[in-house]
Amino acid sequence: MKNDILKVLVTEDEIKQICKKLGKEITKDYQGKELVIVGLLKGCNPFMADLIREIDLFLKVDYLSVSSYQGTESTGDVRIRMDLSEPISGKHVLIAEDIVDTGTTITTVKKLLLHRGALSVKIVTLLDKPEGRLMECIPEYIGTVVPNEFVVGYGLDFNEDYRNLPYVGVLKPSAYEK
Ligand code: IMP
């Protein structure tokens, strides 16, 4: 699998530092608040696991599974595949994303959670791809910015593969031909 990687964009060590930094900021900003971190499956998985261990607060975790991608293209049509396990009314919600690209997913999910009565909804994303934006949105917490390339690893997939890479990278063109 690792042979398919053309270049590494964010190393394991950089990811560790990012989680530490974001965890500190979130700990400071949510003092005294009832916080629920909502991870967007499946991509949030490794990031969520590492991030929450850097947050020194009582918090709850929940997950939402939405889908808008097929292969390397966003379909622009966000569907809920698996809903939250608890109501989020009256809670402060932090949505945890692997990457914000067109902004369609987080904009839609944010609207939905506010409609359900969340007190506040903010976004923490490991990666931001601002050049891909179709909807205007700025995540409150950003790990790092990546160029407008399709990336895989650390939760991010290409056709469900490569999520288990410990870093974020770009695939060799040959990997798309399999
Ligand atoms: P958006 O709705 O276009 O902002 O896309 C958000 C979702 O699309 C992310 O949660 C990812 O699952 C997926 N996505 C966007 N860009 C990439 C990428 O470069 N690699 C893998 N998945 C991506």
CATH class annotation: Alpha Beta
Distance between the termini: 12 Å
How many beta strands in the DSSP annotation? Answer: 9
Order of helices and strands: EHEHEEEHEEEE
**Helical coverage, percent range:** 10-25%
Main sheet summary: 6 strands, mixed
> Which stretches are poorly predicted, pLDDT < 50 over at least 5 residues?
none
Quaternary structure state of the chains depicted: single chain
Question: What is the CATH topology assignment?
Answer: Rossmann fold
On the 0 to 100 scale, the average pLDDT is 94
Structural class per helix/strand content?
alpha/beta
The distinct bound ligands, ions and cofactors come out as: inosinic acid
Label the overall shape. globular
The number of helices is: 3
Read across the widest sheet, the strand sequence of neighbours is 4-3-2-5-6-7
List the domain count as a whole number: 1
| Radius of gyration (Å) | 16 Å
Beta percentage is 35-45%
CATH architecture: 3-Layer(aba) Sandwich
Walk me through this protein's architecture.
It is a single chain. With 178 residues, this protein is of the alpha/beta class. The protein has one domain (11-150): Rossmann fold (3-Layer(aba) Sandwich), CATH 3.40.50.2020. It contains 3 helices and 9 strands. It has helices at 12-29, 45-52, 104-115, and strands at residues 5-10, 35-41, 59-70, 73-82, 92-100, 120-128, 141-145, 151-152, 168-171. The strands form 2 sheets. Strands 4-3-2-5-6-7 form a 6-stranded mixed beta sheet, with helices on both faces. The protein has a 3-stranded antiparallel beta sheet with strand order 1-9-8, with helices on one face. Strand 3 (59-70) and strand 4 form a beta hairpin. The longest helix is centred in the N-terminal third of the chain and has 18 residues, at 12-29. It is globular and about 50 Å long. The chain starts with a strand and ends in a 7-residue tail after the last strand. Inosinic acid (IMP) is lined by residues 40, 43, 68-69, 74, 97-105, 150-152, 156.
